[in-house]
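Friendly challenge for the regulars: who can give me the structure tokens for this chain first? No prize, just bragging rights.
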Amino acid sequence: MSTELEAEVITGDPAAFGRFIRLHDRRFRGVAWSVVRDAHRTDDVMQTAYEKAFRAIGTYDGAAALTTWLHSIVYRTALDNLRYEGRRRHEDVDDLSDVIAIRPDAAAHAVGRMEMDAVMEGLNPGDRAALMLTAGLGFSYDEAAEILDERRGTVASRVSRARARISRWEQS
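First reply, four minutes later:
Bragging rights claimed.
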């Protein structure tokens, strides 16, 4: 990441903001996805979060890294989306019989994926986000705590709960 690019972003330069977003979009999207668990809703969250961030760039005080500041906006926007839009479940596989007809060995994979999706869906959104930030995106517990606006110990507890639930699923 270029500190020159960050300086341009902080001044409110729309082109620099766009370059910065393109550079980090995949990681920001990972946080949104971990909360809302739906591709269309993730797109909505990202649009809203980027608009919020661009409008609020003048309030960025440099206390945290610019990426950390943006991750926290994405996370809060995703939580808002859960609160205001309600939860809808969309299956990736409409009809398992279609999968079996195409590739019989794919059925076991599809069932396993659906089971894992159900385990992840059953996690509290905060637990999913903490797991995504630390295990998925490689943030330290301290960085994740800053993004989630929680204590380090709370993040550690969330990650531990999520890992325990996944471990129980793997053992079953």
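The longest helix spans residues 14-36. The chain has nine helices and no strands. Your move, everyone else.
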